[in-house]
Every structure is written in structure tokens, then in C-alpha cells.
Write a structure and sequence with these properties.
Blueprint: E1 3-8, E2 12-18, E3 25-32, H1 36-49, E4 54-59, H2 69-84, E5 89-93, H3 97-107, H4 112-115, H5 120-135
Parallel strand pairs: 1-4, 4-5
Antiparallel strand pairs: 1-2, 2-3
């Protein structure tokens, strides 16, 4: 079963997808944020194109364990996505995924110049891999 992950951001939305076995995540694409309804429609379209069976949306939390402002924005996006897409949509803790994505690029040997730019799709892959690892028997 393929799973699509969404790293929802203010400027960009990173997407990642799993393999057919649901064991490995890979970055898919970064799409620019336009408007919640249009963004949700684009994600739903990509989920269908990838033949995903489920969508995971990263939500960030504050120190008190409640969604922070970015997390609340991701939850509103998730609600819109659920209205537009027949697939199950679930939240997943995305804490530190961007920092982990930077570390992945460093381990891959990317130069400082090549590490600059969008990490959103890599962060989505880190998010998705943590979900797959936690949900694979």
C-alpha cells in the first residue's frame, strides 16, 4: 500500500511517497503554496496519480504538546484535503523533520551550495519514513 506524506509549509508544500510495500519513503515534489483549497486539490490529484491509499500530513507541536501555529495551519489544510479526497487522511508528528532532512543531505555528501534551497520534499520523506517505521510490523 502506497502512502503519500505532506510537509505543509507557509511558502511550499513538500510531498513524499512510499514504495508499493509501504517500507521505503522517497521525496516526490515541492509545490508552491497558493491557497488552501487549491493546494488540497493539487495534493489530492498527486495522490491519485501516485495511486496512494493513504495520506499523512505532518503537524508540528509546541512544548506543551498542543499544535503550534504551523501545526494548526497544517490541521486546517488536512481538513480541506479530507473534504476533497476520498483517501484516509491522518496527522503525524513532524517535529524536527526539516533538521533531519538537512542531516540527510549532509550524509549524502551534498555540498553546502547544493544543500541550499527547498528541503520540503526531503522533510516529507523523513516524516513518511518515521510513519512507515512506526506502523510496519
Amino acid at each position: 500500500m502506497k502512502v503519500l506524506a505532506v510537509d505543509h509549509g507557509i511558502k511550499n508544500i513538500g510531498l513524499a511517497v512510499s514504495d508499493e510495500t509501504g517500507l521505503l519513503a522517497r521525496p516526490l515534489i515541492v509545490i508552491p503554496h497558493v491557497a488552501r483549497r487549491l493546494d488540497a486539490a493539487r495534493v489530492a490529484e498527486l495522490a491519485a496519480a501516485e495511486q496512494a491509499a493513504k495520506i499523512i500530513v505532518g503537524v508540528s507541536y509546541g512544548e506543551e504538546g498542543q499544535p503550534n501555529p504551523a501545526g494548526r495551519s497544517a490541521l486546517r489544510f488536512m481538513e480541506e484535503l479530507a473534504l476533497q479526497c476520498p483517501l484516509p487522511v491522518a496527522a503525524w508528528d513532524e517535529s524536527l523533520t526539516t533538521q533531519d532532512a538537512r542531516a540527510v543531505r549532509i550524509r549524502m555528501g551534498a555540498s553546502r551550495k547544493n544543500r541550499a534551497g527547498h528541503l520540503d520534499d526531503v522533510a516529507a520523506a523523513v516524516l513518511l519514513q518515521s510513519y512507515l517505521d512506526a506502523n510496519t510490523p
